[in-house]
Amino acid sequence: METVADNQNVKTVKKLEKMFGHIDYRHPPELCPVRDVMSVASDQWSTLIILWLGYFPVLRFNKLKKFVYGISNKVLSQRLKVLEADGYIERNAYPEVPIRVEYSLTEFGQSYVEKLLELTEWMQANSPKVLANREKYGLL
Amino acid sequence: METVADNQNVKTVKKLEKMFGHIDYRHPPELCPVRDVMSVASDQWSTLIILWLGYFPVLRFNKLKKFVYGISNKVLSQRLKVLEADGYIERNAYPEVPIRVEYSLTEFGQSYVEKLLELTEWMQANSPKVLANREKYGLL
DNA sequence: TCATATAGTTACTTTTTGTAACTTACTCTT
DNA sequence: AAGAGTAAGTTACAAAAAGTAACTATATGA
């Protein structure tokens, strides 16, 4: 049953939406591009892949696998496919023997990696606080 | 077997590490605070919870559940616990009947939500490109 | 006495991930 | 000429995470 508070929140949301224009994430993913796109791009493995490709202009499958420590062939290959489909990375295969496949960021991927680096820097700076908090919480 | 290219990359990484000082994410999560902390904070559900708490200073369990469209009681309750443990949010329970529990961002959570909003804005601005790319890729 | 409300929890099912062995095709070694 | 090595994956199976829906406690109001 809707309460007065509910309606107030709904109004506030509408207002905020007008102000900011970017709070679509209250919708289910299939109706909300932001949720949809974000679920691919900020997946744990995807971010690591993209960050490494931000450092090295081109990396091959097995090299990437070494840098993205702990990823399996299966997941790496899956993620590379969706990241390619979404336009972040580029795949170039050279029919040598054995085959050589090079992955690199697209221009679009480059622009994303910059955002990602900011977040990573925040994480780097703040992870000690989180770890300390976690420890304190564990004692309660 | 290590190749020359391998060693070059390792050297380059070391160099980059000195320059940037924040590429710890090549380690496994249990040795890399950044990967560890990020896996909690940029989880899909966590980000939505934090974003909503960025809009509303305090939200109760069921209200949060309505905003974070599609989340289940189980996962919401799990995420709230770890977000509290990690110091992003605060839980305040009032022993009324029925019980009232209020969630809100800590100061630390506030600082994170700002970073998160930047990322969300980028997503909002760029999701059309991603969707277009995805469509084009689907036709290949 | 029975329905209502909040903030969860629990048992069970389904989906997603992880593991490790296998594949293909050619070249290099013995 | 047989066998090992190599890059970039794929596949079948096991384990973990997530989703589903019913259930709990406690007091209030009908």
TrEMBL record, chains A, B:
PANTHER family: HTH-TYPE TRANSCRIPTIONAL REGULATOR YODB, TRANSCRIPTIONAL REGULATOR, MARR FAMILY
An example molecular function term from Gene Ontology annotations: DNA binding
Record-linked InterPro entries: HTH_HxlR, WH-like_DNA-bd_sf, WH_DNA-bd_sf
Keyword Transcription part of the UniProt annotation: yes
Source domain of life: Bacteria
Residues in HTH hxlR-type domain copies: 32-131
This protein's name: Helix-turn-helix transcriptional regulator
Keyword annotations: DNA-binding, Transcription, Transcription regulation
Pfam family, one: HxlR
